[in-house]
Design a protein that fits this description.
Layout: H1 3-13, H2 24-45, H3 50-58, E1 63-64, H4 65-72, H5 76-88, E2 92-97, E3 100-108, H6 110-124, H7 134-149
Antiparallel strand pairs: 1-3, 2-3
Helix pairs in contact: 2-3, 4-5
Domain HTH marR-type: 21-149
Organism: Yinghuangia aomiensis
Protein name: HTH marR-type domain-containing protein
C-alpha cells in the first residue's frame, strides 16, 4: 500500500458518514488491499504484470480496445501498451472491431486462453476472503452489487 492509500485510510477511519455503519470503510479498504495483493501475486506466478493479468482476466470474450480500457479502468495509451506486450508474447491478437472499421478488437489466442485458465486457477487458490463460505461470498457479492448499483459513481475531473 502506498502512502496515499495509508493517508486516505487514516482519514476515513477517523470519522464516519452519518448513518453509515462505523468501521465499514476501513474494512472495505483492507479487503481491497488484500484482493489487490492476491491478484498481483497470482499475476506474477503466471509470468504477467498486474496490468497484463487484468487485461487477460477481462478478455473472456473478444472486446474493443475502448471497452477493454473501461473494464481495466485504464487510459487508452496504457491499454495500448499492455496489449502491445501481450501481443508480443503471442497471448492476444488485434483485428477490426465488427461494426466500426476504425476501432480494434482484442482477443486471446489459444495460448492466451490457456494462460487465462491458469490465472483463474491461481486466483481460486487461498483467496483473501477464504474466511467466508460460498454462501457468504455470494451474499457479499449481492450486497456490494446492490450498493454500487444504487449509488452514483464519484465525480471525476474528466
Amino acid at each position: 500500500m502506498d502512502t496515499r492509500d495509508r493517508g486516505r485510510r487514516t482519514a476515513v477511519s477517523g470519522g464516519s458518514a452519518e448513518g453509515a455503519l462505523p468501521g465499514l470503510t476501513p474494512l472495505l479498504y483492507e479487503a481491497t488491499a488484500r484482493l489487490d495483493a492476491h491478484f498481483a501475486a497470482c499475476a506474477t506466478a503466471v509470468g504477467l504484470t498486474a496490468a497484463q493479468a487484468n487485461a487477460v482476466y477481462e478478455l473472456a470474450d473478444p472486446v474493443g480496445m475502448r471497452e477493454l480500457g473501461r473494464r481495466m479502468c485504464c487510459e487508452p495509451p496504457n491499454v495500448t501498451f499492455v496489449v502491445d506486450r501481450l501481443e508480443e508474447r503471442g497471448l492476444v491478437v488485434r483485428g477490426p472491431l465488427p461494426g466500426d472499421r476504425r476501432a480494434k478488437q482484442v482477443a486471446l489466442t489459444a495460448d492466451g486462453l490457456g494462460l487465462r485458465a491458469e490465472l483463474l486457477a491461481k486466483l481460486a487458490e487461498d483467496p483473501p476472503l477464504r474466511g467466508l463460505g460460498d454462501a457468504d461470498r455470494r451474499t457479499l457479492r449481492t450486497l456490494l452489487a446492490r450498493a454500487l448499483a444504487e449509488s452514483d459513481p464519484a465525480p471525476t475531473d474528466a
